[in-house]
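Table 4 source record.
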Amino acid sequence: MSKPGKLSVSDFPIAPRRPKPATSKATRKPPSVSEEAEARTAAREPAAPPVSEADATRERPRRSLPNPSSEERKSKAIERALAQEEGRYRLRDLQRAHAREAKHYVNCPLDYETKMRLQKAAFDNDIKMTVIIKAAIDQFLRDNGY
């Protein structure tokens, strides 16, 4: 290291660069060999006559997706939009119902010992304190006929 408190690039270890991937000898041919091979194949094969586009389309069948009319596309888009809108409405109603259930708070002061016992019971049973309190209130109300 150099002076204390001062860092330099030489203070940090640097990994060596990765070697470039070696290409196999089979894929890498000398240019003269490939040129000679191309010349030999070109001399053996006669030149193919030019093919027009009409002949090319006749030879291979067209495989494309069906093109729906503008009316069909419009009706599908409307159906999709209505389904999305209905889904948004259902989600909003569900969220409102959940919020309505959660809004009725009961504020009650607890002494320190009771609060500690409640926290310990919630931690040991891995449930929320509100669940324990709600179950205790339900039990009390049922026992007393309410």
